[in-house]
Structure formats: structure tokens, C-alpha cells
């Protein structure tokens, strides 16, 4: 039977018995509990669909029944649930693993949960070793971020050379060494925020950009690592009205943060020599060792 099979399409006793066996396997307590949990999940997803997208739900003709050929009792999304997930991805927040579901590789995703997918630095396949894949404006700020500084120092100690200044040999007239950039632990952050604020846009977004590099924005989308990019492991939340509202609200905040940081990086890259020297002077002025 295909995914569109419904009670009305059952024409033989064998088909009816097969459906009952799959839907009402209550021979043991664990089977009964599993059946109730599956029904609860399906009702919850249908409720969320009707709550957040009432018009689309009312007009939908997608199947609400599970496939009858699910293997190994694996709980899979129904056509109506997939439809709901597509609307969430389009209008509320990203579900960047949807392609797997559409390819029926549902064993990657737990239907009971929302898998938070990283939108910030956590998108890197290996966050600590993929810096070279990022924009020049991001990389030049690494010595000013805590995580970036630690990794650059580790590479320098391991390789015995200043990898940072070598990145910019062809980009800057006189690339600074890390020794010329105050360590982030020595920075008076309150003073930095005040000086950046006084400098107005887009320089006022420097502290925010550094928090983005450090996975320290206090935003679930921007501080997340892993997710669908790293073995489908990461933060998960149950499907609930409260969690959907929370993730949508945080996603809108994440977009504003990314836009602000992007405007700063774009400004930095328009004249990297001049603008970075200005940022560097401001940064070093905020050092407690200055």
C-alpha cells in the first residue's frame, strides 16, 4: 500500500487486518504505551499545524495517516506533517534538514523533536579548524575573539610560526602580529562598548560581531554547534506551541544580529587597511595593559 492508503481504500479482510495490526498492536504494555505516544505526537503536530497555519490546514488534502509499510516500526512523518514542517521552515524558523525528510531518510531525525540547526559560526563543519573558509573580515578579527585567539595561539605554539599574519600578507600593507593586538582577556569590555557606541554605526556592532565569533550571543540559533551538519547531533526541543513561538522569536533576533554583524564586516572589508587599523587602535585603547 502507498502513503495515500486510507480506510476507504481497504477492500479486503487481509488489508483491514494488516492495518489493525500496525495501528493497534497492544499485545504488551510497552506496545500500548508506544501506540499512545505516537498518537499523542501526531495529534500535537496536527494541532500546531491548525494553530499556526489555520488557512493552509483547512485547505490541505494531504494524508494524515501514517504509511502502512513503515519498516521496523520506525515512526515516520505523515504527508500532512511534512506539509506542516515545510510551512514552519518557510515562515517561522529554519529546518535545514528537511531535504532528508523529503528523501524519506527519516531515520536521521527524531519526529518528536525540533533539531536546532546552527546559523552562526557553528555552521562550520569543524568550527575550530575551518576559519579559512570564512570572509576576510571575520578572520581578521579572530585575535580579538576568545575562541579565535586560543586557536591561533595553539597553532602558533604547534607550528612555531605566526599563522595569523601570514593570512594577510597579500591583503594588508603591513599585517599585524598577534603580539600587536591586545589579548581579549585584557580588554575592558564596558569601555569597548562605550567607545564603539560613540563611534556610531557600523562600528558600534564590533562587540556584537565578536560575540558572534565566540558563539556567545545568547541566541540559540547563533550559539549552536553541530546539528544537521555534524551527525544530526545538537540541541533538540519538543514540538509544543511554546517552543515554536520561542524559536520563531529567537530566529527573528538572530536575523537582526546577523544583519548588524554583516554591516560591520562589509564596512571593514571596503577598505581593510584603513578600517582595520582604526579598529585595532580602538581595541588596544580598551586594554587594561594599555
What does this structure look like?
This protein is an all-alpha fold and 290 residues long. It folds into two domains: 80 residues, no CATH class; 165 residues, no CATH class. Strands 1-2 form a two-stranded antiparallel ribbon. α10 packs across α11.
Quick take:
The protein is mainly alpha-helical and 290 residues long. Helices cover 50% and strands 2% of the residues.
What's the domain count?
Answer: 2
The radius of gyration is: 26 Å
Proportion of residues in extended strands: under 5%
For this structure, the quaternary state is single chain
Helical proportion, percent range: 40-55%
The biggest beta sheet is recorded as: 2 strands, antiparallel
* SS element count, helices: 12
Helix/strand-derived class? Answer: mainly alpha
Estimate the mean pLDDT confidence: 82
Poorly predicted sequence stretches spanning 5 or more consecutive residues: 1-6
| Through-space gap between termini | 74 Å
Q: Can you list the strand order of the major beta sheet?
A: 1-2
Question: Could you give the topology of this structure?
Answer:
Elements (H helix, E strand, L loop, with lengths): L12 H11 L5 H24 L1 H6 L19 H13 L6 H5 L10 E3 L20 H4 L6 H14 L3 H5 L21 H11 L6 H8 L22 E3 L2 H30 L1 H14 L5
Antiparallel strand pairs: 1-2
Helix pairs in contact: 10-11
What descriptive keywords fit this protein?
2 domains; two-stranded antiparallel sheet; 290 residues; 12 helices
